Every structure is written in structure tokens, then in C-alpha cells.
Amino acid sequence: MEHPFWLVLFVTLLPLLALAAEPKIAVTVYNEDLALVREARSLKLVKGSQSYAYSGVAAQIDATTVHFRAVDPSAGITLLEQDYEFDLVGTERLLQKYIDEQVIATAENGAVHSGKLLSAQDGDIVLLDSGGKVQALKAAKLQSVEFPSLPEGLRTRPTLVWLLESSKAGDHETEISYLTGGLSWHAEYVAVLEAAENAAQLNGWVSIDNQSGATYTDARVKLVAGDVNRIQPEPQVRAMFRKEAAMAMDSQFEEKALFEYHLYTLQRPATLKDKQIKQLSLFPAAHTPVTKLYSYDGAFDGSKVKVKLEFKNSQANGLGMPLPKGVVRVYKQDTDGAQEFIGEDRLDHTPKDEKVRLSLGNAFDIVGERIVKDVREVSRSSRQETVQIKLRNHKSEEVVVNVIEHFGGDWSFIGKTPTIAVKEAGKAEFQVRVPAGEETAFEYTVLYK
Predict the structure, then answer these.
(1) How large is the average pLDDT for residues 52-67?
(2) Is the per-residue pLDDT at 35 higher than 90?
(3) Label partner for 11 (CA 20 to 30 A): which of 65, 215, 254, 439?
(4) For the segment 345-389, what is each residue's pLDDT rounded down to a tens digit?
């Protein structure tokens, strides 16, 4: 536990092991709490066995995933042993490390107290001075605590401590890679619906959330979308699926297939600071045709008719890149010129040339009604059911409503049936025209076996 800001620490640091030069970093971020970090550093080594402190790694590093190699194999560098040290400098840790040791405490009134530290709890300390007197000092009355040195085992940053064997002395170019938690990314989209409601301007953004405990300066950033399997109990990482062609539109990200996933590479270096969410444009504004749809699923939605927007993720429609999953927020310009929020939906990973359908809310002026008119047992193994659907349109123009009905088991329509738009194993869809200001009704009979 860290103490309040008023506690100033005076620490004389012990010499640390050799520190490397500023690394060249590449970071590949997955959708949920996973990243692959790759660093290139020049290490100054002596010939023979030696300890080396490789500091600045992520606090959430999975040390079992570290891979180390020398760029020049003839350097004869071998990693014999590795310790991950994450006992970091902090007020509470310093006080606990100095139990039974000499410290100097300064009170807010300027009084200086020195002695052996007997206890430290929530900022309160107990000292035994040279005369055998015990002093209890409250945290609120303390100005600073001075320690003579940095205790062994404490680090200012998470550090990998290696035992290396080198056949040559000098500067050696090396590479290290590891997996770490605390890094994730997701996409967000903004769509502005035009007045005629037949086209929209679509922008895509990605947000990279860095809570890994490290800052990556001028890093080469890649984003992976797909469903990457990980052994439990490690958290699963989400990503994408099929291979597709690279994105055709101008973008600061280059998209390409990677195994069964998709890889988005930022075309310039970027700094990912610890405890920061960075937003980057995924692609420039695209003008794409859209279709407004009405959908009624009476078994689940009661009387509500949903309104949806549909567009095709194709190059002809101004898009054509595999779209990573994310939230799409839709706006429409009012008659006074202001853009008003009209709904949002979650977009799943969508390959190019596939349709996107967004559910924005419920239509105010269209009402549905589903009535089960008749149920009868035809035999011991079959049942017949008649359902009536009513749709009332209070708008000033005709609408087409997609009516969705669900079925279970072995089923088939019997008798007169309205035109079926879609028929699947457990579902049928009907396209129903409803004139302005009128009601349209239809019914069907289904036989279950």
C-alpha cells in the first residue's frame, strides 16, 4: 500500500546491474488482455558468465513466454538462468524492508527522530532511539522518512535478471519477445445517416488500452483480430477468422491475413503509454449505401417492431476491408443541422463482401400483434397450430416489414401460406407490405411431428 503524497523518500540507491540502451520495440495487441512484445537491444557483455538486469519489461509479463536470441549466432551468447523480479520500490515495501534497521524520520514541525524501526503500519511508525526510548509517530504528523540505501531485492521497475554466458566481450545486438497481459484493443464506428436515409458516412476507430505496467516508445504497432485459442486458465483472446484481400481504401493501417486471423499494422511508429487509452483512425470516412429495414419477431418482442440499417461491406460501397468487431453509433442530421443520436449496435467481426445489419431501436409508428388462433392434436405424435400476424402502420408512407417466426422439431406448413422470403431449419421469414395508415393481417398453419 502506497502512502499519501506528503511522504517524501530520500533514498541513496545501491549500484544496479548494467542497463541496456533504449530499445527498439514492436507490440502486437490482441482483442482481450494479451500482447506480444518484441524488443531489440544492444547488450554490453564481458566474456564468460555474468548477471544482467533487463529492466523495463511489462509488469504483467508472462515470464514463461520469454524468448531471447543474439542477432549474431557467432557471439556465443547463452541464457542459462532467468529470474523475474517485481518487488518494486514503494513506501510500504521500504518500511517493511527496514524493520529492525536504522531510519531517520522528520515530523511536520521539523523535529528529527532517528532510531531502529520496530513497526510500520498504514504510515504509522514506531522507533527505538539510542537511549532505549520508544517513539510512536502518526502518519499524519510525518513529513519524510530517510533510508540509507535501497534494500537488496527491490527494483524501481519490473526486471528480468539473467545469468548469461558469452564467448566474446563487447556490444551484442539481441532480441527478446514475450507475452504480457494488460494490453487490449477494440474498434468503434461512427455512422452519420443522410437525410434520405439511403446512405451514410462511416468512420472507424481503434482504441488501444495499455494497463500492462510499461510504456512502449515509438513502437511498431500491430493489431490482431480473430479467435486465438489459449490454454486455460489463461484468459481467452478474441480475434477474427477467414483470409481476405488487403484493404483497398487509403488508411494509416495496412490490413492482411495472418493464419486464420487478420492483422492490422499501423504505418508509423506510435507511443503506447502505461495507463493510457490511445485512439487511432482505422480508415477514412467512407460513403456507403444503406437500407432501412423493419423487423417483427412477435414471439420475443411482443408488439414492438425493430428498425435496422443494413449495408454490404464491399469495395463498391466504399468499404471492402475486414471489419473488426466493435460498437457502431449512428447519428442523423436534424432539420436544424444538428446531428442527433439515433441508436447503436455491436458489430461482429465481418469479412469483406458480407452484409452488416445493425439494430437501432423500435419503430414508434409501427405495431405488431401475434395471435395463436388454434392448437389441436392431430394424432398422438403430431400437433397443428394456426397463428395470425397483424401489422399496423401509422406512418404517412408504406413500409415493408420482415416478419420472423420460429419453429422447433420436425415441422412443415400446411394449407395456404403467405410468400416466404427465408426458410431455415427452425425459422421462416415473410416480407409483408403495409400501406400508410392501414393494417395488414395474415395467418399460417404449421404441422409439428
Answers:
(1) 90
(2) yes
(3) 215
(4) 999 989 999 999 999 999 999 999 999 999 999 888 899 999 999
Q: Is pLDDT above 80 for 420?
A: yes
**In the structure grid, which three cell numbers stand for residue 296, read together?**
417483427
Write the CB contacts of 82 (distance below 8 Å, at least 6 apart in sequence).
63, 66, 160, 161, 162, 163
pLDDT over threshold 70, residue 398? yes
User: Which of 159, 192, 190 lies closest to 176 in space, CA to CA?
Assistant: 159
Q: Which three cell numbers stand for residue 155?
A: 527494483
- Residue 230 carries which side chain, given as an amino acid letter? R
Please state the rounded mean pLDDT for residues 105-123: 81
Diameter of the chain by CA atoms?
A: 105
Same fold across 90-147 and 365-448:
no
CA atoms within 13 A on the CB side of 193: 25
- Say what the alpha-carbon torsion angle 42, 43, 48, 53 is, to the nearest 10 degrees: -150
**Residue 20 reports pLDDT greater than 60:** no
Cell 392501414 locates to 438
Whole-structure pTM value: 0.68
Options 2.60.40.710, 3.40.50.300, 3.10.105.10, 3.30.450.20; CATH for 365-448 is 2.60.40.710
Do the beta carbons of residue 327 and residue 356 sit within 8 Å?
no
Domain 90-147 class? Answer: mainly beta
Domain ranges of the chain: 11-88+155-180, 90-147, 365-448
Q: Which residues of 167-195 are buried (b: 16+ CB within 10 A; e: fewer)?
A: eeeeebebbbebbbbbbbbbbbbbbbbee
pLDDT, tens digit, 9 for 90 and up, residues 82-91 = 888 765 555 6
